[in-house]
């Protein structure tokens, strides 16, 4: 009897435990789907409470970047994404004209950077084309590698430039071989022989009958290289100026106020940018543009109006037509044809200084009418200062 009484009790307890486990599982599942308040024991035994609706929350998207997370001594890099915004594409440059003038740039790797900067400077000028024929490893010492005096006439004949730009010498700080022997760098015989080679190249460039611009070397990070560039620039300047050529000095653009080399400096707009590469010798894109900034002014002077894309020369064929004004109610206005600024009659022609010129009009001006009559002429009808009342309409007689 005792065993029968204990068996239903155990079954009842087992059933309650199953109900509690099932209710807890359902409650945990619902809680995982959406948040709900904690239920009491009566709600667990006799029914479930309907979950309240919770609107979804706005989730902010992470910014783009890299988050470094430390876990158990190791570093994990997690990349996050962010919505990308497309910048407005710049309009393409205008096409070059068939009659565009050409600027030829020759020299070493510094001249190559100069040519890239000039291409950017004249990108919006349809009448100018920059031909960059620089050889990065060339110079005037190793003529066995590349002979600029021998190759320049053929290049000029092929390109047919309007301006010739030369910048060379950054690779020439080495031993020079002559028929008399080898000359060590930084010796007086070396500078004498090197000056003769510079004069020879400048003479060949002047014989092409093309305006020649010789650009000096900039400063470099190695101090001995900067000191050598100063000495070489003096040779370039004296050689080209003897042949009536132009020397452009770019030294001030790549040093500070004390004359020391700088990696970061102001660009052509005055903003601080990186001008030189990590080696202190090459140029960045802003550095190339600044290098060309010093040469751009001289090139524009030689090329003239072709460098201005928006310049239109007015002549008799493209002058706008004169539009006739509507007739005015003020009869005192007298129209006269336009006068040319270069008309000989404009300054009095044959009339001497102090002579009396004939009046341009015989009709009295408003000032003359005020002086003579004591009143100004009536303003035109409809203007704000016209205050006269309209005359009353005549009365019609009734029969």
From TrEMBL:
Biased composition (Low complexity): 76-89
Residue span of region Disordered: 53-96, 345-399
Signal peptide: 1-32
Polar residues: bias regions: 358-375
Keyword Hydrolase attached: no
Key word Signal present: yes
InterPro entries to which the protein is assigned, alphabetical: DUF459 (IPR007407), SGNH_hydro_sf (IPR036514)
SUPFAM superfamilies: SGNH hydrolase
CDD domains assigned: SGNH_hydrolase_peri2 (cd01829)
Keyword tags: Plasmid, Signal
Pfam families in the record: DUF459
The protein's name in its UniProt record: DUF459 domain-containing protein
